[in-house]
């Protein structure tokens, strides 16, 4: 693990949560995404809106992100597909629901499976960014019939890979607990400066950063803290070889993370997966869909067919 890659990933996953200091519960709920259908289905751990008709494409945002992260591609997809826009309860200023308790990520996966079963969406194309990528892997592992193919956008099969090749969940867990507790304690203590610093670590363009600041400030830090803890203690490396679902990994490179470093790191992380396609998007940070919308839209269109 090079210092550059480790620093970038810490910025991408830990810093957003350190900045989640919104006075949650006193702000007005965030408006629905401009691309989402008016009707919203609320479940224990997620809410879902749909748009368009055709074969299903399920879009799962990452840590602290609303479904609006897909605004740049959802209308395009909806011309030929049923687009299922997922949002984790507690993000985007909405109620946390059951996400304040343990088992949050497992609960999200259970809700996704229940929604897919109810609406007969088995074999869907699933796209997940950041934590959403891990959720997509978890869904493919637990319910392989649900996921016809999976696109993971800048995510790893285990966060703990950042701590070196010999790291274990047992060794990382105390740090994960400490980070979770510290982040949850920021509830009700807004800090816009931290959010701005976080956005600069996650996105390259000014307009991309402005969106990330808004999303970070609206998320419930208690939910994000629990999500990070589960992310840091969920290791799917040993399951990759048994996941037969075709996987496309979209990953960024930039001056701070040149291709010569990004390529071997990401390809090595998923070396055990039997059906992998790798798509690098240059001049981008963690929010690939914001920094390079045209390149991301093309990658997504190629993926969904």
Task: Kindly describe this structure.
It is a single chain. It is built from twelve helices and eight strands. With 305 residues, it is of the alpha/beta class. Strands 1-2-4-3-5-6-7-8 form an eight-stranded mixed beta sheet, with helices on both faces. Helix 4 crosses helix 5. The longest helix has 16 residues. The two termini are 35 Å apart.
Please summarize the sheet with the most strands. Answer: 8 strands, mixed
User: Between the first and last Cα atoms, what is the distance in angstroms?
Assistant: 35 Å
Q: What would you call the shape?
A: globular
Q: Please give the order of strands in the largest beta sheet.
A: 1-2-4-3-5-6-7-8
- Share in β-strands: 15-25%
Low-confidence spans:
11-38
Mean pLDDT: 88
Number of helices: 12
Total beta-strand segments: 8
Helix share, percent: 40-55%
Helices and strands, in order, run as HHEEEHEHEHEHHHHEHEHH
| Structure classification | alpha/beta
Q: Please compute the radius of gyration using only Cα atoms.
A: 18 Å
List keywords for this structure.
12 helices, 15% strand, globular, 305 residues, eight-stranded mixed beta sheet, 8 strands
What is the secondary structure topology, with strand pairs?
Layout: H1 3-13, H2 15-18, E1 41-42, E2 46-51, E3 55-60, H3 74-78, E4 81-88, H4 104-118, E5 124-129, H5 131-142, E6 147-153, H6 169-184, H7 192-202, H8 206-218, H9 221-232, E7 247-252, H10 259-269, E8 276-281, H11 288-291, H12 293-304
Parallel strand pairs: 3-4, 3-5, 5-6, 6-7, 7-8
Antiparallel strand pairs: 1-2, 2-4
Helix pairs in contact: 4-5, 6-9, 7-8
